C-alpha cells in the first residue's frame, strides 16, 4: 500500500478564517479513531489569518477514499465550504523524514 500525502490550502472569506479553522479542527477530532488517517494537521498561515492549510498523511488511497465517502454531502462539509473563497489540494510524493515510523521507507529511486 502506498501512502498518500497532501497539502490542502483554503482561503476563507475575509474575517472567517477562525471559523474555518474551528470546523477543520472538528474534522481532525472526528478522524482520531480512523486508523487510515496517520496525520491531519490544521495550520493558519502566520501572515494571512484567513488562509488555512491542512497537512494530511493517509495509510493508502483506499483509506482516504473511504473517509471522503463518509463525509461527502455532510452538513460539516457544507458549512466549511460555505466559508471558503478559494481552495487547492496539492498531492505529494512522500520521501521520508523525522516523525515517520518504519512503515514508510524512503523510495530507492
From TrEMBL:
First-level EC class: oxidoreductase
Source species of the chain: Actinomadura fibrosa
UniProt keyword terms in alphabetical order: Monooxygenase, Oxidoreductase
Keyword Oxidoreductase: yes
Molecular-function annotations in GO: monooxygenase activity
Signal peptide: none
Oxidoreductase is among the record's keywords: yes
Limits of the ABM domain: 9-69
Coiled-coil intervals, chain numbering: none
The protein's name in its UniProt record: Quinol monooxygenase
SUPFAM superfamilies per record: Dimeric alpha+beta barrel
EC identifiers of the protein: 1.-.-.-
A Pfam family matched in the record: ABM
Amino acid at each position: 500500500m502506498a501512502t498518500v500525502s497532501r497539502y490542502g490550502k483554503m482561503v476563507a472569506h475575509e474575517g472567517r478564517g477562525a471559523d474555518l479553522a474551528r470546523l477543520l479542527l472538528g474534522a481532525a477530532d472526528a478522524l482520531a479513531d480512523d486508523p487510515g488517517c496517520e496525520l491531519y494537521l490544521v495550520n493558519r498561515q502566520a501572515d494571512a489569518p484567513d488562509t488555512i492549510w491542512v497537512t494530511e498523511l493517509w495509510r493508502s488511497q483506499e483509506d482516504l477514499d473511504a473517509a471522503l465517502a463518509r463525509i461527502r454531502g455532510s452538513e460539516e462539509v457544507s458549512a466549511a465550504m460555505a466559508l471558503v473563497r478559494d481552495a487547492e489540494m496539492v498531492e505529494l510524493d512522500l520521501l521520508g523524514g523525522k516523525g515517520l515510523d518504519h512503515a514508510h521507507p524512503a523510495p530507492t529511486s
